[in-house]
Amino acid sequence: MIFTEEHLWLREEDGEMVVGLSQHAVDELGEIVFLELPEEGTTISRDDEVVVIEGSMEASDVLAPIDGEITEANTALTDNPGLLNEDAQGEAWLFKMTVSDASQMDEFMTEAAYQKYI
Hints:
The chain is of the alpha+beta class. It has 4 helices and 9 strands. It has helices at 23-29, 75-79, 83-87, 111-117, and strands spanning 2-3, 8-13, 16-21, 32-36, 43-44, 49-55, 59-63, 68-73, 95-99. A hairpin with a 2-residue loop joins strand 2 (8-13) and strand 3 (16-21).
């Protein structure tokens, strides 16, 4: 699992990248009350707005960490956004995507480096 400065995590799974929100980010947002996920098949570029999240303490737009295409959105979160509070770095991933340019991930951090960053 690798992390971005924007508090996202990424892990490779079956040739795709699974993308989620770090526990730190979820804690900053508070109780998650609303979530809008991207559509499958959407082509995204790094820094495109891909997810809208509203929490009890803050709202935030999640920007795409890398270029690629959305292959799946975690629709369980749409029905129950609070799952993010329960398992942010596990089953409560946001979306899966294919990667267009893997070199964009070179600057991402290990979990240990991310812990120092936050």
